[in-house]
Amino acid sequence: MNGSLIIKNxxxxxxxxxxxxxxxxxxxxKILDIxxxxxxxxxxxxxxxxxxxxxxxxxxxxIDNHFHLIITALGAQWVNMEGVKNFHAxxxxxxxxxxxxxGKPVIxxxxxxxxLDEKQxxxxxxxxxxxxxxxxAVYSADYHLLSLNTCGMLFFKVxxxxxxxxxxxxxxxxxxxxxxxxxxxxxxxxxTFTDEDISRSMEKMPELFRLGLTTIAAMExxxxxxxxxRDRDSEFIYNNGNRxxxxxxxFYPTMDIDSVTEKGLKRIGGVxxxxxxxxxxxxxxxxxYADQPGTQGFLCIEPEIxxxxxxxxxxxxLQLSFDAIGxxxxxxxxDAFEYAREKYGTKDLRCRIEHAELINRKQMEKxxxxxxxxxxxPAYEGRWGGRGKMYSQRLGDRYGLTNPFRELxxxxxxVCGGSDSDVTSPDPLLGIHYAVNHPVESHxxxxxxxxxxxxxxxxxxxFREKDIGSLTPGKNADIVLLDxxxxxxxxxxxxxxxxxxxxxxxxxxxxxx
Length: 513
Known about the structure:
Blueprint: E1 5-8, E2 11-13, E3 20-21, E4 23-27, E5 30-35, E6 49-52, E7 57-60, E8 62-67, H1 69-75, E9 79-80, H2 87-100, E10 106-111, H3 124-130, E11 136-140, E12 146-148, H4 150-155, E13 165-167, E14 173-177, H5 179-190, H6 195-204, E15 213-218, H7 232-240, E16 247-250, H8 257-262, E17 267-273, H9 303-315, E18 319-324, H10 327-344, E19 352-355, H11 361-370, E20 373-376, H12 379-384, H13 390-395, H14 405-410, E21 415-417, H15 428-436, H16 447-453, H17 456-460, E22 479-482, H18 486-489, E23 499-504, E24 507-511
Parallel strand pairs: 1-6, 2-7, 8-15, 9-10, 10-11, 15-16, 17-18, 18-19, 19-20, 20-21
Antiparallel strand pairs: 1-4, 2-3, 4-5, 7-22, 11-12, 12-14, 13-14, 22-23, 23-24
């Protein structure tokens, strides 16, 4: 039997029982065989593609279990506010965008406002200084705060009556929105983009294969939107996802269970927000926020509604995922899963909690008992973890409780990894780096454990472990070759590694250079 592709001389981490190999052979889009020594020679033929890995790391294709594909594609065309340090620097980028495309609305994203000298989101008067005669909208880094200039409030039809509309001491709107008001505005802004705009953005989107991504869990319709019914972004993925070589596993964020079952989908939720974010002080936490006493965040869905919804999903054998960050929200979700199990019995539905940043020991024990999967984002720690950063500003001495990967792995809980792109970079190696190099040393995990978050655990979390997630003979040939030996490079250099080659279903889709 001839092999169509062989990788030899590799430091191959199979992520299965075989653990390691030096070569692998691919035939017909599948892993044909793996081994050591020169055993691959029996698969050589005149038309075999042979790749010398030069002792560099070879892995299964990376799986991102929390990815906002549409907003990542659109956001790549927006004004990027990463790294700005003050309103003046922000204003320069807004003015540059106006000059590049005169007369069109300006939309900006990724503003980490707690890193600004001013320590606040810009209000409409600030934005008016830089964008006076055209609509302008600026999203915070976590998409849970939104600022509009005066023209933008008129253009995007601000829902002043909704909760979350900022009002100043004179009763005038500040131009800063969150909660239901921000969600409505978010919808209004995204409605200005047609499906054709989205298609063009998808074509222009930075190539994800160069990052080694071969599968994503598409968590569309999230952002700030808490309208849990029909979602246009999810409809686009449902109708067009098979046009793209990337495998997209759609979590439809709706509470209309009939619509999901009618589509033939087997999973529901993803970005069904149970609470908000730590950055916006809207994550539902026990105790108070250190930098805003009296504030504890809020629940977006009442606990009794969560229970009845979860029970109906169990009855229909749907994999269910909720987005919960604060410990009070995590409690509500675990109670809902427990209620559903008590009502309909134990089932292998692999229900999930997205983020779970502030999960505590008691909740870990309950999650393990219920076989709940945690879909977490290690790169959050790189962005917001450590003393002086956002987690410590919001939580005070409790900042060291976030994302306790070591304890979760020690308890045997399945943890999968994602980027929450475009909140953080879609580069899986960045997430792997911060899982290994967590700012709190006691939360750090090994390189192998971190890799499992984005490979074998990631496949299990999507019911895809029979097809992907390890370099096992018979599985799909989704393969990544790195530009170095990751184990020899040192844990502090993981984020510097690059992908040299990405293979999807046996086809080379990215090759450096």
